[in-house]
Specification:
The chain is α/β, with parallel strands linked by helices. It has helices at about 5-15, 20-25, 30-45, 60-85, 105-115, 130-140, 200-215, 225-235, 245-250, 280-290, and strands at about 50, 55-60, 90-100, 120-125, 145-150, 155-160, 160-170, 190-195, 220-225, 240-245, 255-260, 265-275. It is built from 10 helices and 12 strands.
Length: about 325
């Protein structure tokens, strides 16, 4: 027996106190409506309407049931609304991973966008490398994550990808920092600073392959897990890093110069399990792509000559240690 359907019929008849008008309101014929009420009465083993007179009236049982039925039907609607929000990814908990180097302003923008799109969604963010995210996605301990490509992993779906051009990070006083662009081959003999291979194996191998293909075989590869350590190694001299321009803005003594021919871009996209995905994962992927996308320069904006140095030179080019 579909109790909720029969209760909905009962409530309309109780409001109208007329089977004909109630049937019209419900958009059904009167006989099936009468049968529905009779079946409800048999199920509850009580008469709900007094049909002994010309006018239909509620019995005492009918009057008591009307209040309970209203509350039950309202609860059913709340339940349907809640499950609909869960199905659309607007409610519940979303466990999401983001790379450790993600800027605070980017995280804020992403969280604000998620809050605006799905106010009832609780986003549980975790600071994780691409390798850690892949492992947790496979183990079911993460719903979605922002990964650096290339990613060779079966069983995942990917959101829109964002490509961010990479350039070289140099001490602002270095001779190469006076040029508008830097050829990778001009870095020959220098060390390369990058994230440890375990954090994103695919990207690590791709980075070294592209550098060598363009004439830059690093003297050695040095690893930095956080930006401050990376900046320290760059400023110490003899080593460079290939990173997005946004990273250089954190340290005024560091200059960022684009690479000739733009041979390297960092591609990032959200990923989530192909099977039984979290309903909010595609929304997270779309919003993440919108937040991560580099802003377009205004039309007609002139390029700033890199030779102009608004910060003082803190050490002479070629020295091998930080200033005391």
């Amino acid at each position: 027996m579909d109790l909720l359907r029969h209760l909905r019929h009962f409530v309309v008849v109780a409001r109208e106190l007329h089977f004909g008008r109630a049937a019209e309101t419900l958009g059904m014929a009167q006989p099936p409506l009468s049968q529905s009420i009779q079946r409800l009465e048999r199920e509850l083993r009580v008469e709900l309407f007094d049909r002994s007179r010309r006018q239909v009236r509620l019995t005492t049982a009918g009057q008591l049931l009307l209040g309970e039925a209203d509350e039950l039907l309202a609860a059913e609607q709340r339940l349907r609304n809640m499950t609909d929000q869960v199905r659309r990814g607007a409610l519940g908990v979303l466990r999401a991973g983001v790379p450790p180097e993600t800027p605070a302003v980017t995280l804020r923008a992403l969280l604000d966008a998620l809050a605006a799109r799905a106010p009832g969604l609780d986003v549980d963010l975790h600071e994780l490398t691409s390798a850690e995210q892949l492992r947790m996605l496979a183990e079911g301990r993460l719903d979605t994550g922002l990964l650096h490509h290339p990613v060779d992993e079966a069983g995942l779906r990917f959101g829109p990808a964002v490509d961010v051009p990479l350039g070289v990070l140099l001490p602002r006083a270095a001779p190469l920092a006076r040029t508008r662009q830097v050829d990778l081959a001009a870095l020959a003999g220098l060390d390369l600073i990058t994230a440890p291979p375990a954090t994103a194996p695919g990207w690590h191998d791709h980075l070294l392959a592209v550098c060598r293909r363009h004439g830059f075989a690093p003297g050695r590869v040095r690893y930095a897990r956080n930006p401050e350590f990376l900046f320290g190694l760059v400023l110490a001299g003899g080593a460079v890093a290939v990173e997005p321009e946004a990273l250089a803005r954190r340290e005024p003594r560091i200059a960022w110069r684009p690479l000739v021919g733009a041979p390297l871009v960092k591609r990032t996209s959200a990923a989530w399990p192909d099977r039984s995905p979290h309903p909010a994962a595609p929304m997270f992927g779309q919003l993440a792509a919108e937040v991560l996308a580099p802003a377009e320069p205004p039309p007609g904006a002139a390029a700033v000559a890199p030779a102009a140095r608004p910060w003082p030179v803190l050490f002479e080019a070629g020295r091998g240690k930080l200033p005391s």
